Amino acid sequence: MNDNKPNLDLAYALETVQDNRELYASWACDYDKDFASAMDYILPNQVAQIFLNMGGTGPVLDVGAGTGLGGQALAKLGIDPIDALDLSDEMLEIAAKKKIYRSLFTSDITQRIETSNYLYQGVISSGTFTHGHVGPNAIDNLLSVASTGALFALSINKSHWFEKGFAKKFEALSSRIEKLILHDVEIYGENSKGEHSDDLGVVATFCKV
Ligand SMILES: C[S@@+](CC[C@H](N)C(=O)[O-])C[C@H]1O[C@@H](n2cnc3c(N)ncnc32)[C@H](O)[C@@H]1O
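A: This is the predicted complex of the input protein with S-adenosylmethionine.
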């Protein structure tokens, strides 16, 4: 890969929220082609399918929506309405062009979310709880925008799960959530090549109490 262009290794090496803003500002236009298609990135489809299988319904908030791949997958499964939240205006501009989201919000989920007047029946996220991006404490902020009983389907990079304390976080949330299930998933499809092609994730599904 060309070191001057955004890529997965640079994304995994991010340290701060501002690092994320800068990387995704420069990646937005090429993300779908240079990353998602090139890597056969199937995680957004996996999250959407699991959300549907677990009985998920709209309205849904797609957290760290990026260019809208998770929203596209949900819409194909007949789920709506879907809103998008992301740190990056540039990623959301690409998502908006796909005309699948009811509303799009710029927000940092490591802080209190100032989104909207909406309370969601579903919250999904793919590719945002991963190396260099967002840690487990942001789940508190997501719970605050969900209705009682809302279904969550959040992908978490498998090694991040152990390194960043997601297991402990879910234990600490035990009075605020129920029906926690961890679904093992592949992040990339069979056409993926390179050192990350076998990377694994878990999709945590649970309901807000
Ligand atoms: C790997 S992309 C995933 C995008 C999309 N969900 C997908 O699967 O293609 C990670 C996204 O998380 C967003 N992000 C990173 N840190 C964030 C934060 N603190 N708050 C909200 N979004 C964040 C980035 O801007 C980026 O769009």
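The chain has a mean pLDDT of 92. The domain at 8-208 is CATH 3.40.50.150 (Rossmann fold).
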